[in-house]
Amino acid sequence: MATIPAAVHALIAGASTGRHLQLIHAHLITSGRLASLGPTLLRRLISLHPHHHLAAAHRLLLSIPSPPLDLFNLLLPPLASSPDPAVAAGLYVHLRRGGLSPDAHTLPHVLKALARLAPGCLPLVACTHAEAVKTGLARAVVYVPNALMAAYSACGHFGHAMQVFDEMLRRTVVSWNTALTTCADNGRHDRCARMFADMVEAGSVPDQTTFVVMLTTAAELGNLALGKWAHGQVLARRLDMTLQLGTAAVNMYAKCGEVSYASRLFERMAARNVWTWSVMIMGYSQHGMAQAALELFNRMKDASVAPNYVTFLGLLCGCSHAGLVTEGRKFFHEMQHVYGIKPMMTHYSAMVDVLGRNGHLQEAFDFVVDMPVEADSVVWRTLLSACQLHSSKDCIGIVDKVQKRLLKLEPRRSGNHVMVANIYSDIGLWDKAAMMRRVMREGGLKKMAGESCVEVGGRIQRFISGDESCPGLDGVYRVLHELNINMRKWEPVDKILLVDSDL
User: Fold this and answer.
1) d(CA 103, CA 131)
2) Element (H, E) at 455
3) Using alpha carbons only, what angle is made at residue 413 by residues 410 and 419, rounded to the nearest 5 degrees?
4) What residue spans do the PPR repeats cover (predicted)?
5) Among the listed residues 108, 101, 153, 159, the one whose alpha carbon sits nearest the alpha carbon of residue 131
6) How far, in Å, CA of 172 to CA of 199, rounded?
7) What is the dihedral of CA 152, 154, 158, 162, to 10 degrees?
8) Which of these, 99, 89, 44, 90, lies nearest to 67 by C-alpha position?
């Protein structure tokens, strides 16, 4: 005849619902057998529905006297991926206070939770790093430093993340991909491109994730040559064109100005998600093709794909450049009241641009004042830029109010003062313009030098106004001088002759 614990073991193993396990849990508490059978119950609860009973599993674990480390390791992965990763971080603190030392199965999931809680958990990431170094896991197990890099990157500590990478004795493709992603996420796109060359030289074979990062880097740099090369490598290596990879390629071509190629690639994709649709809509909008963006949005809705915040940012951008004020108002309303998307500061700035760029300055000002959140400097500067675009004496009242707001937010930003001085000059208020420039001089504020970039031979060349240290500057000036002479010699040609000669 089976003993009572054996019978309970059988009940636990045969339980098919969370309700059954709750009844068994209650029995174990009342019978005093929780200490011996709690671990078995917890394992069954997690195996039944890992994400459905996390709260119950968490309470059960904390109620077990002196639970072993493997039970913590069992619960940490689903908690780290749950909507509330703070519970995983708290569980880690609990196990450390209980005298347990983490192992290679503990730290990666703890660091994953901390990365999702960033940037406010840097001290705990540093403590976890110290624990990994002390136990030797930082060097012995490759996925521990990989997780450390991701956590430091999420906290905005690029230097610490790269230090972890530099100290690694062994690197897998995941290690390289994490380092590349860290560079990209922290705006170090030039370094990302150089690191990829180091990766290939080290003999590591790039995968789809590698090329997603490289295509994203090329898009952010506006480096079409790098993007084409990365896309070519995907084809040459016969890598599967995953949804993420295809979306990254569409985004790269659109951002680098090859909108027609991005569109052809988009149309050839077998599967598309909301990000694929959104980057294509954004690509059309950023290149003045607002009507194409709006038509694609209608196709997106017909395909039953729900838009996200990027979709509406692209639509508002397109409406701004095309002067579609009514459509812009409609999209901003739809975003909140139809799709339930809470506007971000970038959406508010885009809506101010829709109104301001098209001359609705007072409405734009009222829109900013009525925002449910405090407007940041970008929103106010967008409105000030609109005032400069439509400068007249009628907008002086708005200019003065916007200037006061910006002075509080950015007292040392010279560009705001320059913009206001230019507005005063445009409408003939010379005394006010002179006063603004005097304020700049007395405050020690200097106008930022103009800067432009151009890609030549696959390299990005930077030009800064007033900088004469650029190699080959004499040759550049010589060409500009010759162009200037030729332009002065140019005479207008009858438009009819131009049409007839197919010029």
Assistant:
1) 10
2) strand 451-456
3) 110
4) 172-206, 273-307
5) 101
6) 10
7) 50
8) 99
H-assigned helices in 427-472: 430-442
> Per the structure block, which two tokens stand in for 242?
């995953």
Residue 371 exposed, middle or buried by CB count within 10 Å (0-12, 13-18, 19+): middle
Tokens representing 285 are 């909008």
CA-to-CA dists, residue 343 to 273, 334, 433, angstroms: 21, 11, 36
Exposed, middle or buried: residue 256 (CB in 10 Å: 0-12, 13-18, 19+)?
Answer: buried
pLDDT at 88: 92
Tokens encoding 327 = 């459509």
- What does the CA dihedral 324, 327, 329, 332 come to, rounded to 10 degrees? -120
pTM over 0.70: yes
Which amino acid, residue 188? R
460 bridge partner residues: 455
Lookup: tokens for 488:
């002065």
What stretch of H or E contains 460?
A: strand 459-464
Predicted pLDDT of residue 29: 60
For residues 69 and 95, the answer to whether their CB atoms sit within 8 Å is yes
What is the C-alpha to C-alpha distance for residues 40 and 14, in angstroms, rounded to an integer? 12
Quote the pLDDT of residue 497.
Answer: 41
For residue 178, which of 225, 215, 212 has the smallest C-alpha distance? 212
Say how far apart CA 134 and CA 222 lie, in whole Å: 43
- Give the burial class of 57: count Cβ atoms within 10 A of its Cβ; 0-12 exposed, 13-18 middle, 19 or more buried: buried
Residue type present at position 8: V
Cα gap 485→292, rounded to integer Å: 40
Cβ–Cβ under 8 Å, residues 308 and 277:
no
